[in-house]
Write a structure and sequence with these properties.
The protein is built from 15 helices and 21 strands. By secondary structure, it is α/β, with parallel strands linked by helices. The protein has two domains: 277 residues, Aldehyde Dehydrogenase, Chain A, domain 1 (3-Layer(aba) Sandwich); 186 residues, Aldehyde Dehydrogenase, Chain A, domain 2 (3-Layer(aba) Sandwich), CATH 3.40.309. The strands form five sheets. The protein has a seven-stranded mixed sheet, with helices on both faces. Helix 8 links the parallel strand 11 and strand 12. Helix 5 crosses helix 15. The longest helix is centred in the N-terminal third of the chain and has 24 residues. The structure holds nicotinamide-adenine-dinucleotide.
Length: 488
Amino acid sequence: MGTDLHQIRNFVDGAFVDGPTTFEKVSPVDGSVAADVHLADSFIVDRAVQAARRALNSGWGATTVPERVALLRRVTDGIEARFEDFVEAEVRDTGKPATLARQLDVGRAVVNFRQFADTVSSEGLDSFLTELPDGRKALNYAVAKPLGVLAIVVPWNLPLLLLTWKVAPALACGNAVIVKPSEETPSTATLLAKVMADAGAPAGVYNVVHGFGASSAGEFLTTHPDIDGVTFTGESSTGSTIMRAVAPRVRPVSFELGGKNAAVVFADADLDATIEGLGRSVFTNTGQVCLCTERIYVQRPVFDSIAEGLAGFAKNLVLGDPHQESTTTGPLISQAHRAKVSSYLDLAVEAGAEVLVGGGIPDLGANLNGGAWIEPTLWAGLDNTARVVREEVFGPVAAIVPFDSEEEAVRLANDTDYGLASAVWTTNLQRGHRVAQQMRVGMSWVNTWYLRDLRSPFGGVGLSGIGREGGRHSLAFYTEPTNVCVQL
Ligand code: NAD
């Protein structure tokens, strides 16, 4: 059975395919084996790329927008019909609370397909009536074609959300895709293959290859000579490797990479709302969202109130069984990731941090202690020179640092190689706009965090990425316009 989620297979040319070997997917909740995953070797990856090319050339690439929109809407219905299966698959892979998987991950997957069906339906063509000084006249118009056969490589933190954020616009624009989900979260991409097939996606339009990055499916895919572009979400260093992989053939990339996001809290902020918003921004998904806040700059008069309030928020988080309604916080994704986050807990103490809350590994009892659990943690007493304040930890951690002036706050927030997102907390309207606009980031929030309109541009500057996706910005990446100029 292709969608038995204890045996996870590749999906190539419309069929589920075994790999020559399998690897074990381990549950981060308790360390048990969750599934055997069929590894795609270079031969399977090559078959997937060839299948995508055939699908593109044998009709899919020339479908009309209404035909593709109809498919996207059937896929939306298919995800909704199997909503709880997707939730269960996401929970099994990540250990995140089912309530979160419902609301954030699977809910957004539905919206991603719906939104891009709407966006592509309302997209017009550029056309210009040209008149040159010598009297010649011409009509210019651009025809949008699919970019082609695309590699979609995604991480483990919001597996289905981030995958569908790319698959939906790619298919809306008539591309054929090969997706490489993270080795940590193979399930939902595989379940989506079944939904795609049931919705009538032609064979080869949506392919899934499983495996790791270097010397594995990720590298085989991104170095394949017959892909037309790569859209990638993950670590900045992986983005750099993929850029080198496609450089010899000069293929376009869209990169959504890491972050070291700042929040700036002014003394005039609504403190209760700020603490609630900051709490969500630091601890949602156990801090494993690229947009999560890991640096909090607080104006000195309210420093103690914010630090105490946020520590109280952290203490109220409930770690435990993801299926319990009361659970707010899951484990980290893996033991390897916990070892990395733990090393930053040690580094913070070595750098002289005052640990306001957390700082270690919790004891959750015999049933859960084999999992990758970590305590939500807040530090004071550090400044921008500490490694934990400069490097992305990607866990439920943040450093709280005081400032005095608005100018200083902007300088501290922008003192980073990353540039994904920021949040400003203030009741002063002009200051909110002024500071938000000075942030060197792709997304700048005022008095909120992670409030998204999917038509708006999403992406980062510096180490946080290249390009923007969202609404027409996605369509710009996923299409290749041909301009036609007709002399009149
Ligand atoms: P990662 O870069 O380790 O892996 C991401 C994907 O790339 C996985 O599928 C992996 O197998 C693959 N990969 C790894 N090495 C590769 C290689 N050499 N060639 C081809 N593919 C390769 O990232 P991760 O640990 O899975 O995810 C966490 C990171 O993702 C964090 O840095 C986080 O900030 C970032 N992220 C960014 C955004 C955003 O929108 N900017 C969103 C979510 C996560």
